[in-house]
Amino acid sequence: YREASNPSDARMLRSCGDPRQTDGSMTVAVVIVSVVAAAAVLGLTIRARGLARSARASDLARDEAMNLAAAARGERDARDAILSGLEDGVVLFDPDGSVVFQNHRAGRLLGGPADRA
User: What is the model's pTM?
Assistant: First the structure.
């Protein structure tokens, strides 16, 4: 169908052939478009599944990091409790030489604040 050439008949369309007749090339074009659309949908589905797997992996990694941090805090608290109970003065340094812990006895002996962490 094409638009009518007469401006007064602008709303009318004129036929360029019998629409009931199908051309072989038109059928091939429709099949090609259908195959391309199906491939696009399949590609998007595969990508969505991959993103879902990545999100689950990210959630698992975050949970594992949180568990490790909680375990490290628990170990530090246990260490501090043990070292705080000693009668001897104990001072712990990090690799840079900063004090990361000293018990009450060390604080009294060295004149600094006790139980720094």
Answer: 0.46
